[in-house]
Amino acid sequence: MYLSKQDVTYEAQRVREEYFPNDYSRDGLEEILEAHGGELVYVSNEYIQESLLIHANGSFKIFLPRNSSAVRDYFTIAHELGHYFLHWTKGTEESFCRGESNPIEWQANWFAAELLMPEQLFSDMAEEFDYDINDLSDYFGVSRSAASVRLDALELV
Ligand SMILES: [Zn+2]
After folding, report:
1. 21 CA distance to ligand 1 centroid (A)?
2. How far is the CA of 105 from the centre of ligand 1 (A)?
3. Residue-wise pLDDT tens digits, 39-82
4. How many angstroms is it from 47 CA to the middle of ligand 1?
5. Fold designation for 5-116
6. What separation in Å is there between the alpha carbon of 77 and the centre of ligand 1?
7. 79 C-alpha to ligand 1 centroid (Å)
8. How far, in Å, from the CA of 98 to the mean position of ligand 1?
9. What is the pTM of this model?
10. What is the dihedral of CA 148, 152, 155, 157, to 10 degrees?
11. 96 CA to middle of ligand 1, Å?
């Protein structure tokens, strides 16, 4: 399935408008999980960490590593939700694993970035914080590397 960056951005914006009551709130992710029967499962088995299993009825499980950080989990959840909203064929059972180098992986990352760091707000805050990565990562609740990738991707630096 071909999706442009713009297509992915639109879908992330649609999801954000539906579930994130304010421009930016971590609670939005929990609302999405709740509305779709999504469950977070913490596992030690590295083969299934950071993967997604969607049941035919649309409920799903996101597998997270036991020893990860909140900001990393936060981005992983948003990434897996990208697969859920962009790539899942409704009515089928499907799973998505990380590390496969195919277009759906950048699409899910782009979706996650837009969901958690809305383009307009991010560029406003980048200017306000004078492009400081620490301030941006604190503000958006993401890792320094996620904030840094977002700055580059939006060509703000
Ligand atoms: Zn993925």
Report:
1. 26
2. 5
3. 999 998 877 888 999 999 999 999 999 988 888 899 999 999 99
4. 13
5. Arc Repressor Mutant, subunit A (1.10.10)
6. 10
7. 6
8. 4
9. 0.93
10. 60
11. 6
| Domain residue ranges of the chain, discontinuous segments joined by + | 5-116, 118-157
- Ion ligand 1 neighbours (CB, 5 A) are 98, 105, 108
Q: What's the pLDDT tens digit per position in 16-49?
A: 989 886 656 677 899 999 999 999 999 988 778 8
